[in-house]
Amino acid sequence: xxxxxxxHLIFMVTWFAxxxxxxxxxxxxxxxxxxxxxxxxxxxxxxLYYFTMPWMILTLFFGFWMLYEYAWTxxxxxxxxxxxxxxxxxxxxxxxxxxHLMRVFAADKNTRSHVWxxxxxxxxxxxxxAVVLLASLKPF
Length: 140
Prior knowledge:
By secondary structure, the protein is mainly α. The protein has five helices and no strands. 86% of the residues lie in helices and 0% in strands.
């Protein structure tokens, strides 16, 4: 079981590294006025998004494997697990929405400001805090 948790945490950290940096690229991209700079950001965003995808999949794979092996039996009646799973669902939606935004930038159709992307960039931080606290403390 500890190997499952270790792999889950390793892949979660790599996924979060990408999901923290991708919206930061959107902040800089939204601030860029020159075409060569925009093209450079398009390449970086595309590469990072698709590089991050396997880490998300592996995080979910090992997380659900742990859920299947023991966590659901042990914690299914506890509210913290249900909240954690809901937050993970929101994070997966966030990840795919980042892919949508990547395509918006690729088509030169972005209408949002860098300030909006700065706020958008904080969503995974809040989710990370909540999920780690829920999983560690199991408060209810």
